[in-house]
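Can't attach files on this board, so I'm pasting raw text. These are the components:
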Amino acid sequence: MTVTELREKREKRPTIYNGTRIPAPTPTILEVDPALREEGDILQVNFGPNHPSTHGVLRLVVDLNGERVVGLKAVIGYLHTGFEKNMEAKTYWKAITYAPRIDYVAFQNNELVFVLAIEKLLGIEVPPKATWMRMLLCELNRIQSHLVFLGTAALELGAISMFWYCFRERDAILDLFELVAGFRMHTRYFQAGGLAEDVPTGFYEECHKFCEIMPERLDEYEAILDRQQIWLERTKGIGLLAPGDAIALGQSGPVLRASGVDWDLRRAQPYLAYGDIDFNVPVYRNGDVYDRYKVRMDEMRESVRIVQQCLDGMPEGPWIADDRKVVLPPRHELHTSMESLIHHFKLVTEGFRVPEGEVYVTIESPRGEQGCYLVADGGPKPWRVKFRAPSFVALQATATCMTDALVADLIAIVGSLDSVMGDCDR
Amino acid sequence: MTYDGVPGFVEEGESFGETTVVVERPALAEAARYFRDELGFNFLSDITPTDYLGWGSKGVAGYWGTGAGRDINEPGSWGLHKLPDPRPKRFSISYHLLALGPKARRVRMQVWCEEGEPVPSVIELWPTADWHEREAWDMMGIPIEGHPNLARILMDEDWNGHPLRKDYPLGGEPVRFSDAE
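---
Top answer:
Structure tokens for the assembled complex are below.
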């Protein structure tokens, strides 16, 4: 293809299709056309499970006709670790530790959804400082998650430098997490009733510094990619998903918003204190890989704005509820108060009881609707925990997005769906 | 909003600010269609089966493991505060529906079944049900009727048992080399 032809092709960026492209009868399997199979020029390739661009262990069974993808089936489960079964055998207190390990990139959002589910059953009131701090950390986590997406998605398409730049900022965010919780990932900083510890001195200043540099850095990233011919060629008009198909396939988060559906749980069904915060929900209309990247870039900018508002509006006061049947007593009281010692012992060995009931709590994680269905029987262990994993749902769209794709687009499309296999397989 | 018109309507419950509508198992497909077309629940968030085997009795949550192993009959001193309400059947399957749009609302459509009783598939209404239903089969052994490709999804194809059932032990994986051999 000559340069002129390439330019013409880019000018004619395919617009989003009408109708539906979801394969039938199985929505997640793209079947090879029997007529094409008759011709006999079909090559079946196993893409993964151990391929660097599958973001973990995803296996795609791809039927190729030349370079065209004519058949596709996603095979998952390679990272299934039985989190939900394990959580049933642990007290709520200990089960919180499992939640961030499920989606190991958006760890704080996973932690939040589980803690919110427990709190909903307990009916416990969380002090405002904890709510705002949760919001702040979840937004930092969103930036961090999108940076991982951006770095790896660009890396897979050959823009290696993006990876180093993105992971530089990601590291700055992980440093903030380390400062506040003592861990860089899987912080387990959210506790039923509030936060595990008070916010350390110096955190707000460091966070302010980060908020000042981050918008500039985002402009730089965009400048690198948006003028990069290869990046544009390989993302624009690739992996199309129409709004109707996106809703039918249960897509959420950036994938849904890139298809032109104006939907964000933070605004539609506000949790924490998102109702008091001013932010925009970026929506793009073309439903391709490029728009998914654009949505995430804009979301990072919005997240920085939210973090700044959280810093400005951070209330003073206690960081955890004062309910001794649920919350650990302050450490210093253990030396002087028998009552506190008993509570501490009981809570650590046996946990707290959660009233009988079932709840389904949803939040907007970086990947979309992160839900947690929690059934309690009145005892100190959850009866059933189920995470509605946005990555699991996102991968169901592979067959639809891959219609008419080339084998090289496969990587761009899987990357743009941004699924984390830990979240997908649980 | 009332849900009396739902085909196969059994009962409607409200707890923790969430609405649960229980429908009869054979009428599930029509009920689902009514929810989608008449009531506007265009988005299926999740399908979750739950196993209530041993609900509220000995050997279940509320009892404690010991250092030597998992003795689920060793009760914690707190135990259960009160016995939980009995459940009609062994399994519940919850369909978390969302009306995605300006008037967003959620509802939980629920059916109950005993072991081996088939549950109709909703894949034609919400294609996203595909993998959720396969997971329900794989993890809980709920036979989904009318699913075009009801294969295991998270476990191996030749796996025995359904790991999230309550009678499936934790660490139930067979050990190839043990002291006994």
